[in-house]
Design goal:
By secondary structure, this protein is α+β, with helices and mostly antiparallel strands. It folds into two domains: 138 residues, Phosphorylase Kinase, domain 1; 93 residues, Orthogonal Bundle (Transferase(Phosphotransferase), domain 1). It contains eight helices and nine strands. The longest helix has 21 residues. The structure holds adenosine-5'-triphosphate and magnesium ion (MG). The site of magnesium ion has 3 residues, from loops.
């Protein structure tokens, strides 16, 4: 990269850094904003998608999610996959066997980039079929920009930390979204749980679709059964009458 670009980038990133304070944030951003990430954010800034990076919403194992603001003032979420410490082997399992990502099994870096690309493509496919997921906006390298789920005050909470007033319709809606994903989009989430459903205005928004696989993936049926098991287990505890067999049939569109 030429020097001028690098300086420009540095000053841009400095600006976004000054929006945030505190030792914890600084630690996070040092970890997260490696060179590749800086370039990706720069790219999103140059494309007019991101104006400022505001604060971290979540710092996880494979990456971090930041709230950002667009030039027109709307919020968005940036999911940043960590290129250095990502659990490469765990990720590879979902890439191998997906015909859309043939030939990239080799290098670690390529796999991480393919991963964010994959999350973006899965979001596009699901959103296009009416599954309630964040609307995808753009991706660059290891960063995916998507619709921010939350209010002006705070990001939407995970299902697991919400007390639902009426779990039954919430459950039915999730099952219906899983059916649309499976039947209409041909995708299985493969990491479905109360951790990957956000609650906005009382309804579930399904997130974290990077690992979602197509119906013809070699492990597809195992992933589907596991997803259904997780959901049935969680909602059974809330008093919803459901069993894995009938939910599987509903998700496959075999029952009205
Ligand atoms: N579009 C979004 N809008 C608001 N918050 C989001 C959005 N996407 C993700 N988050 C927040 O970031 C968290 C982590 O996102 P996600 O589940 O996609 O990543 P992950 O790979 O599972 O991370 P982890 O390693 O923490 O499990 C979510 O639990 C949620 O709180
Ligand atoms: Mg998650």
């Amino acid at each position: 990269m030429d020097k001028e670009l690098y300086h420009h980038l540095d000053s841009q990133i400095d600006k976004l850094r000054t929006r945030r304070k505190g030792a914890q944030d600084r630690k996070t951003e040092d970890e997260v904003f490696d060179r590749s990430t800086l370039l990706a954010i720069y790219d999103l800034m140059a494309s007019g998608i991101v104006e400022t990076v505001d604060f971290p919403i979540s710092t996880g194992k494979e990456g971090n999610v930041f709230r950002a603001t667009s030039p027109s003032g709307t919020f968005l979420a940036l999911k940043i996959y960590r290129t250095a410490t990502a659990n490469f082997n765990a990720i590879r399992m979902y890439i191998v066997g997906d015909p859309r990502f043939k030939g990239i099994e080799g290098s670690k870096r390529k796999v991480i980039m393919a991963w964010s690309h994959k999350e973006f493509r899965n979001l596009e496919l699901l959103h296009g079929k009416g599954v309630r997921v964040p609307k995808p906006i753009q991706f660059s390298k290891n960063v995916v920009a998507m619709e921010y789920i939350g209010t002006d005050e705070q990001p939407a909470p995970m299902l697991k930390s919400v007390v639902l007033e009426d779990p039954q319709p919430f459950f039915d809606d999730i099952v219906e979204n899983m059916r649309k994903a499976y039947v209409d989009a041909g995708l299985i989430h493969a990491d479905m749980s109360e951790y990957n459903i956000l609650v906005r205005d009382g309804v579930g928004v399904i997130i974290d679709v990077g690992q979602a696989v197509m119906r013809n993936h070699p492990n597809a049926q195992d992933f589907l059964r596991r997803d259904i098991h997780n959901i049935v287990h969680y909602f059974s505890k809330l008093g919803v009458k459901c069993d894995a067999g009938s939910v599987l049939a509903r998700v496959k569109g075999e029952k009205p």
